[in-house]
Amino acid sequence: MSVKQHLDQIKHSWTAAFVVIAFTAVAGLVLLQTAFAATGSVYLSPSSTSMAHGSSVTLSLRINPGATVDGVQATINFDSSELQYVSLSTSSSAFPIQLSQSVGSSSIQLSRGDLSGGV
C-alpha cells in the first residue's frame, strides 16, 4: 500500500468517525430538547392555607403540562389524622373522561382523559 493510499484510508476513517460523532451529538440535542419540552408540573392550589379545626377547605388540582397531553394521573396523599376527605368535583376539569378514581382513608387517586386532541 502506498503512502497516498494509506493517508486516504486514514482520512476516510476520520471522516466516518466525525460523521458518527456529529450525528450522535445532533441526535442527543434533539432528544434533550424533546425531553425538556415535555417537562411540566402538577400542583395543588392554593399551595398552603390556614384553617380552624372543623372548617372546610377546597383544593384544586392543577397541571401545567409543558406540552399537549391527553390525560392526567395523580395521587394525593394526606394525613388522615389532620384532614378528612369530603368530596371531589370534576365539573371544571379540562379532562372530561374519568378513567379511574379511588378514595382511601388517606389518599385520592384519579386518572382522567381527553379524546379531542389534547389539552
Strand order of the largest sheet: 3-5-4
Low-confidence stretches: 10-36
Query: Could you tell me the number of beta strands?
Result: 5
Mean pLDDT: 75
Instruction: State the secondary-structure class.
Output: alpha+beta
The total count of helices amounts to 1
Q: Portion of residues in helices?
A: 25-40%
H/E series, N to C? HEEEEE
How does the major sheet shape up?
3 strands, antiparallel
Q: Strand share of the residues?
A: 25-35%
Roughly how many Å apart are the termini?
64 Å
Net shape: elongated
Oligomeric state, counting identical vs distinct chains: single chain
Number of domains: 2
Cα Rg:
27 Å
What would you say this structure looks like, in words?
By secondary structure, the chain is an alpha+beta fold. It has two domains: 1-37; 41-113, no CATH class. The protein has one helix spanning 3-37, and strands at residues 41-45, 60-64, 71-77, 97-103, 107-113. A hairpin with a 3-residue loop joins strand 4 and strand 5 (107-113). The model is unreliable at 10-36 (pLDDT under 50).
